[in-house]
Write a structure and sequence with these properties.
By secondary structure, the protein is α/β, with parallel strands linked by helices. The protein has helices at about 10-20, 30-45, 50-60, 65-75, 85-100, 120-130, 145-155, 160-165, 170-175, 185-190, 200-205, 225-240, and strands spanning about 110-115, 140-145, 155-160, 175-180, 180-185, 190-195, 210-215, 240-245, 260-265, 270-274. The chain has two domains: about 10-75, Chemotaxis receptor methyltransferase CheR, N-terminal domain (Chemotaxis Receptor Methyltransferase Cher, domain 1), CATH 1.10.155.10; about 85-274, 3-Layer(aba) Sandwich (Rossmann fold), CATH 3.40.50. The longest helix is centred in the middle third of the chain and has 18 residues, at about 85-100.
Length: about 270
């Protein structure tokens, strides 16, 4: 591995560029991470320093460099059945409420924003199937800014780390295991549509307007207050009246927005658009 130093002034420029493009704010303590992850790109592209890389980023027009940058700076940690208390509230409280609010029996629209490699939207789909809902009753979208994770999501083949919290009954029914890999059943795989969506870009988010439930978990932590406010406001616009926003258990909208009504359901906070 090349040992190319990232000067503080170039780090600042890179940090500002990343912030402007995707809302992620890289703190000084994470400089080493950027240095490590981007060094690999420099090496592959035979660039001599980070200043050359910054130029390449700014002048490249086809979006590939930006995509690669997003892959490098995002944290994609996820797994099936993450934060189960919230998932049970989704399955047993929120879904019945949304259904009872609808005048006509329409499809429910559920969006897993920043879904990484798909474990979250697929978990939601399995839970709805288990509750006896038919695939025609809901549409589920999964989105992320990173192309690479979206490709994995579409493949729907997972390792043992991803499936470690899957309840046995679900594992038997919805996965086929070969060695160390777990392939998701086609019925669940086909029930989720994946899209590339940058959460701080209103032209992107408006594609998922009229959602009934939005999961936006474990991504706001990477944003500063201003980006969090922007994302919260864009997601608000994407929800139907009465719809719910669910964020990660370690995240909060306190001091970010007052637009939502925080409902406490079985000790879980669900933000409702009223
Ligand atoms: C830690 S994962 C969370 C995955 C899943 N929601 C969960 O809780 O398990 C965070 C994801 O947010 C995505 N992300 C970061 N910034 C984003 C942005 N501006 N727009 C959309 N997705 C973004 C990353 O690519 C990453 O896959």
């Amino acid at each position: 591995m090349l040992n190319i130093l990232l000067a503080d002034s170039t780090f600042n420029e890179l940090r500002n560029y990343i912030y402007e493009k995707c809302g992620i704010y890289i703190t000084d303590t994470k400089k080493y991470l950027v240095e490590n992850r981007l060094s690999r790109i420099l090496q592959e592209k035979n660039l001599n320093n980070f200043e050359e890389y910054l130029k390449l980023l700014k002048y490249s027009t086809n979006g590939n460099e930006l995509s690669r940058l997003f892959d490098a700076v995002t944290t994609n940690e996820t797994y099936f059945f993450r934060e189960p208390d919230q998932l049970h509230v989704f399955q047993n409280e929120i879904i019945p409420r949304i259904i009872s609010q609808k005048r006509n029996p329409q499809q429910l629209k559920i969006w897993s924003a920043a879904c990484s490699s798909g474990e979250e939207p697929y978990t939601l789909s399995m839970m709805l199937h288990e509750k006896g809902y038919h695939a025609k009753q809901f549409e589920i979208y999964g989105s992320d800014i990173s192309e690479t994770v979206l490709q994995s999501a579409k493949r729907a083949v997972y390792n043992s780390y991803s499936v470690r919290n899957v309840p046995v009954a679900y594992a038997r029914k919805y996965f086929s295991c070969t060695g160390q890999t777990y392939a998701l059943d086609e019925s669940i795989k086909n029930s989720v549509k994946f899209m590339k969506i940058n959460l701080i870009d209103d032209k992107n988010t408006r594609l998922l307007r009229n959602s009934d439930i939005i999961f936006c978990r474990n991504v706001l932590i990477y944003f500063d207050v201003k980006s969090k406010q922007k994302v919260a406001s864009l997601l608000y616009d994407c929800l139907n009246p009465g719809g719910y926003l669910l964020i990660g258990a370690s995240e909060s909208l306190h001091n970010i927005t007052r637009a939502f009504r925080p409902n406490i359901l079985n000790k879980v906070i669900a933000y409702q658009k009223v």
